[in-house]
Amino acid sequence: MIKSVKWFFVVLVFSSFISLSFSDERVVLTEKYSVGDVLPSFSLCSAKQSLNLHRSEGGYTLLSFWASYDASSRECNASLAHFTEKTDRIQLVSVSFDRYPSVFRAAVKQDGLPEDRCYLEVENIYSNLYKMFDLKNGFKNYLLDSKGVIIARNVTAENLKSYLKD
């Protein structure tokens, strides 16, 4: 009797696992900030450096997160920075999560980035900002209108051209 109860229990548990694996429910990962959301205000370096992402003159702000150790984010940031230098309608705010200030300064110099628009989050991946934007899944950028509303995410220099045509 006990043997048959054991086998019944084993079969019951096994069939439960199988039925759960075919469940229609899927875990969907959502981004914290999507197009149409107002980007919350934040500070760099634990409130030592506050950034204003709102533009009163009606232009755009491009918030770009990157690090020198991440080649694709660095390349994208440099491309965006060079594009925004050609127009006064987009203000770049470039935030690096490099661990060492010397590495950050060298990357800014090598990439020809505007030093006055580049910031270093010295707490790097341990910062609240890194967690706030969920950057463990990759660095991102956000294009904001004058009110701080996200109008595009992960844009390229080519994408930016279409926003300037209006």
Biggest sheet details: 5 strands, mixed
- Beta-sheet strand percentage? 15-25%
Give Rg in angstroms. Answer: 23 Å
Distance between the termini: 79 Å
Order of strands across the widest beta sheet? 5-4-3-6-7
Q: Output mean pLDDT.
A: 80
Order of SSEs: HEEEHEHEHEEH
The helix count comes to 5
Q: What share of residues is helical?
A: 25-40%
Tally of DSSP β-strands: 7
Low-confidence stretches: 23-29
- Structural class, by secondary structure, is alpha/beta
| Principal-axes shape call | globular
Name the features:
166 residues; five-stranded mixed beta sheet
Describe this structure in words.
By secondary structure, the protein is of the alpha/beta class. It is built from 5 helices and 7 strands. Strands 5-4-3-6-7 form a 5-stranded mixed sheet, covered by helices on one side. A two-stranded antiparallel ribbon has the order 1-2. Helix 2 links the parallel strand 3 and strand 4. The longest helix is centred in the N-terminal third of the chain and has 20 residues, at 2-21. Residues 23-29 have low confidence and may be disordered.
